[in-house]
């Protein structure tokens, strides 16, 4: 009798497990898929990791602009692009787009004559145009 009850219970549990396993349904929320498509479309593929020289940082925007103009006048022959970046509470002035830190170090030697606190920092830089 005990064997029969155990056997019946075992068969019943096995059937229940098989029936419940076959009824799994996965629902995909389309709003999440749409948000992922929007996020992936907004990724800027023109930026890559590189280096820039940070020449100064100030809490006052006018002082930052003065430093940026001073750099532009002093290093006009280098044809180096300047970037003004606001990271609360500082305005940071960065210059150049360098793939290798050693390239930024070469200009840093000259920049430190005018801006002694200048340092090389990692930043996202613009991808160069393809040469044909």
| Low-confidence region ranges | none
Instruction: Give the biggest sheet.
Output: 4 strands, antiparallel
Q: What pattern of helices and strands is seen along the backbone?
A: HHEHEEHE
| Content of β-strand | 25-35%
Q: What is the approximate shape?
A: rod-shaped
CATH-defined fold name of the largest domain = Alpha-Beta Plaits
Strand order of the largest sheet: 2-3-1-4
What is the number of independent domains?
2
User: Residue-averaged pLDDT, rounded?
Assistant: 82
CATH architecture of the largest domain: 2-Layer Sandwich
Could you name the CATH class of the largest domain? Alpha Beta
CATH superfamily of the largest domain: Sporulation related repeat
Radius of gyration, in Å, reads 31 Å
**End-to-end Cα distance:** 88 Å
Annotation, overall tally of beta strands: 4
Helix content: 40-55%
Total helices: the number is 4
Overall structural class, as computed from helix and strand content, comes to alpha+beta
Please describe what this structure looks like.
The chain has two domains: 2-41; 47-126, Sporulation related repeat (Alpha-Beta Plaits, 2-Layer Sandwich), CATH 3.30.70. It starts with a helix and ends in a 6-residue tail after the last strand. It has four helices and four strands; from the N terminus they run ααβαββαβ. The protein is rod-shaped. The chain has a four-stranded antiparallel beta sheet with strand order 2-3-1-4, with helices on one face. The protein is of the alpha+beta class and 132 residues long. The protein is 45% helix and 27% strand.
